[in-house]
From TrEMBL:
This is Response regulator receiver protein. CDD domains: REC_RR468-like. It comes from Hyella patelloides LEGE 07179. Gene3D superfamilies: 3.40.50.2300. InterPro entries: Bact_response_regulator, CheY-like_superfamily, Sig_transdc_resp-reg_receiver. The modification 4-aspartylphosphate is found at residue 54. The keyword Nucleotidyltransferase does not apply. The keyword Phosphoprotein applies.
């Protein structure tokens, strides 16, 4: 089943690789944004099923972008998965603080990205 996903990352190569992997491996519809502000606007208008968000970005980082998404009535219920190169211990704290759906560590394998996202979504459904 095809999913609509929004990727927010300031690095064009990361967006391109993730988009290619999701489209090739799972035939998902991918929308991309290069900043948190652009991502918030696209999330409001496009209503993706999930958001894949980079932690380290200029201006609005992943934390600020998540806070903006969670404080917006149009985007509050969209699950957010954080992408980061940080260690697991730091990530666990951020998961709790930001009410994230999950975390995917960088570097990721593009053709396995859809499986990782699907697994996180399945865990969310089980917990609800």
């Amino acid at each position: 089943m095809s999913k609509n996903i929004l990727i927010i990352d300031d690095e064009e190569d990361v967006r391109s690789i993730a988009q290619m992997g999701l489209e090739m491996a799972a035939n998902w519809n991918v929308i991309t944004a290069s900043s948190g502000e652009e991502g918030l606007r696209l999330a409001e208008t496009e209503q993706p099923e999930i958001i894949l968000l980079d932690l380290m970005m200029p201006d609005w980082d992943g934390k600020e972008t998540t806070k903006q998404l969670k404080n917006n009535q149009k985007t509050v219920n969209i699950p957010v998965i954080l992408m980061t190169a940080k260690t697991q211990s730091v990530i666990a704290l951020e998961l709790t603080e930001l009410n994230l759906a999950g975390v995917i560590t960088k570097p990721f394998r593009p053709l396995q990205l859809s499986e990782q996202i699907s697994q996180i979504l399945s865990e969310i459904e089980l917990n609800n």
